[in-house]
Amino acid sequence: MTFMRQTFMAVRYLALLLFVLGAAVLTALLVANWHDDPLSEMARQVLQMPPTDAMQEGNGYLIIVGLNAPTDSGNPISSAETFARQSLAKSQEARHQAKQAPQSFDAIMAWATSTGEDGVSPLTLDCSWKADKDCFSWTLANRNQVLTLVQTYRPLLVRYEAAATAPQFINLPYDIFNPLPSYSQLRSVHALMLAKATLEWPLSAQVALDTMEITSRLRARMGNTASSLLEAMVVLEMQSAELRWLSQAMRHTNAHISPIVSSRIRELILQPGPNLDSALQGEQQLIVGMLPLVSQKGQYDSWQEKLHDNLSRLGVLPIATLNASLEHLDQIKAMAHLPANALEAAFKTYHRVSADRYHCARPLRLRNYFGTCMVAMNSDHYQSSFQRVHDLDGYRRLVMLQYLAMHKSIPAQDMQAWVQASPTELHNPYTLQAMQWLAATHSLIFEGKEPHRSNPGGSATYRIPLRQKVP
After folding, report:
1. Bridge partners of 437?
2. Cα distances (Å, whole numbers) of residue 175 to 47, 85, 90, 172, 273
3. Global pTM value
4. CA–CA separation, 231 vs 218, rounded Å?
5. In whole angstroms, what is the distance from residue 202 CA to residue 63 CA?
6. CB contact at 8 A, 90 and 84
7. From CA 461, how far away is CA 450, in angstroms rounded?
8. Contact 432, 424 (CB under 8 A)
């Protein structure tokens, strides 16, 4: 009996000790997370977004937002702008409702279900601009089919050109409410513009390049004002397709091109990629835009209700998490300007620092534990996005080598030495070595970092087969 009594007492004391320890930990967590942080200066600056009204007049971006609007109501440009303004008004109302009731997602759901209005039917081409497909030859062989698509979707082509030539092009602030363009339809219209230029090329290179300059102008405008990494990557896909068009156009040139045409091709090749500063700034605006939905606390009549609310938020402080997220993105933005050959080492250093500062491997952190360790969870995709931009630059350099080989009429037997002697600005941006020349297939090769669906097998290897007889 004495042994049983002692065992029972020991269990009671152990239970009491565990209760005291648990209560102490809970009290420490409550004290550490009772009050959130104030907004940082960086967050206040990001909150200063331009007023929406100033963006609407003559803004080509609104035409892109309304690209998929119905075309049976007269002028395709004005109907697109009207559709975009209506969508914008709905988004403002949804945002207002969400701010009035931050604990309710009814306004968000109402807005999400109101954007599925019927518009123009999806546009599809049977040939996409991929490296393993000669879309030039396919388009010319299927001229009537392409012309039918051009006629059917002419209102979308008109909208595309109007957006490219509009007096201004200002992207909407990136948040969960503002309407976004139909990126899939946009890519399809872009591909149809390339197909239209293909049909024009054999008849008049000048006319074809006029179409290409309109095509690339809108893509460049979107890239310069991209408000998210998603939009920047869409622009990147469009620019990659333009480079493939230029590459295939040069391979289908049977005669010497004029100096004017040659100069215009060169200018199109040299265009830069999307602005990652603008895209990452948009990502910061998205984070700050979520603040009204997650940071406001309700009004409580008793301390028990307030205690329950604080317990439900234990370990996640919205403003502290927001401030850390913006600081984290600012560090990412600093790496967006690094050359390709310095990017991998910079991210390795960054991951070591962020693992100590943000990740969940520090169990002694009491304040905003879960909020802080969530900050860097998605950092890997930033490196991937940056490398996609550098891959595009590598491919652009490869197309420029193709252009110079054609322009200078480099014989096949001299290509290896000529590529090796190419200027450093046309070298592999990662290795800083000359691009590869594969004599067996008469191809220029660039080894990128990121898989690309436009490459055979979705690989990171870019190949440009040159004409067997360079003019």
Report:
1. 444
2. 11, 16, 14, 9, 23
3. 0.86
4. 13
5. 31
6. no
7. 9
8. yes
CB 325 within 8 A of CB 372: no
Residue at token pair 């006319």: 207
User: To which H or E segment does residue 464 belong?
Assistant: strand 461-465
The span from the CA of 50 to the CA of 57, in Å, is: 14
Beta-carbon neighbour count of residue 69 at 10 Å?
27
pLDDT in tens, the chain (471 residues): 565 666 666 666 666 666 666 565 556 655 656 666 677 777 777 766 655 666 678 899 999 999 988 887 778 999 999 888 888 888 777 777 766 665 555 555 555 544 445 567 777 777 765 555 788 889 999 999 999 999 999 999 999 999 999 999 988 877 777 788 889 999 999 999 999 999 999 999 999 999 999 999 999 999 999 988 999 999 999 999 999 999 999 988 876 788 999 999 999 999 999 989 889 988 888 887 776 666 555 555 566 556 656 655 666 777 877 888 888 888 888 898 899 999 999 998 888 877 777 766 555 666 777 777 777 666 668 899 999 999 999 999 999 999 999 999 899 899 999 999 999 999 999 999 999 999 999 999 999 999 888 888 789 899 999 876 544
Determine how many CB atoms are found less than 10 A away from the CB of residue 275.
19
In one letter, which amino acid is 51? P
C-alpha dihedral, 31 to 34 to 38 to 40, nearest 10°: 60
Q: What is the DSSP letter of 446?
A: E
